[in-house]
Design a protein that fits this description.
- Strand 2 and strand 3 (28-32) form a beta hairpin.
- The protein has 2 domains: 7-40, no CATH class; 42-89.
- By secondary structure, the chain is α+β, with helices and mostly antiparallel strands.
- The N and C termini lie far apart (71 Å).
- Helices cover 45% and strands 15% of the residues.
- A 3-stranded antiparallel beta sheet has the order 1-2-3, with no helix packed on it.
- The protein is elongated and about 80 Å long.
């Protein structure tokens, strides 16, 4: 069997489809749909309730992050003011030593 004749049979872990893939090109040669519904299928009501709970969690996370961003800007402003105050107190006009001068 040469490399060009080599094919892989793969089952999709998500939908359960069977795929035949050419090893040389990586192209899908054959695709077969699964006969029944995918494993772990849920009914419409459970999917809808899960979607509502995900939306609620997403809104909570969004509100938390929005509050953190408001607080973050205040904290950054305070840090800047403190650094500015310390820099203005250190009115040292001499430049820092150059590493070349230390030899």
């Amino acid at each position: 069997m040469s490399k060009s004749d080599k094919r892989f049979n793969v089952r999709c872990p998500d939908c359960g489809s069977e795929l035949v893939i050419d090893a040389a090109t990586g192209e899908i040669l054959f695709h077969k749909q699964p006969k029944g519904p995918p494993a772990g299928g849920k009914d419409f009501d459970s999917l809808f309730s899960e979607m509502d709970s995900q939306r609620t969690r997403a809104e909570e996370v969004f509100e938390r992050e929005r509050a953190a961003q408001k607080d973050r800007s205040r904290l950054l402003e305070e840090k800047f003011e403190e650094a500015f105050r310390r820099a203005s107190e250190d009115d040292d006009d001499t430049p820092p030593p150059r590493p070349f001068d230390l030899d």
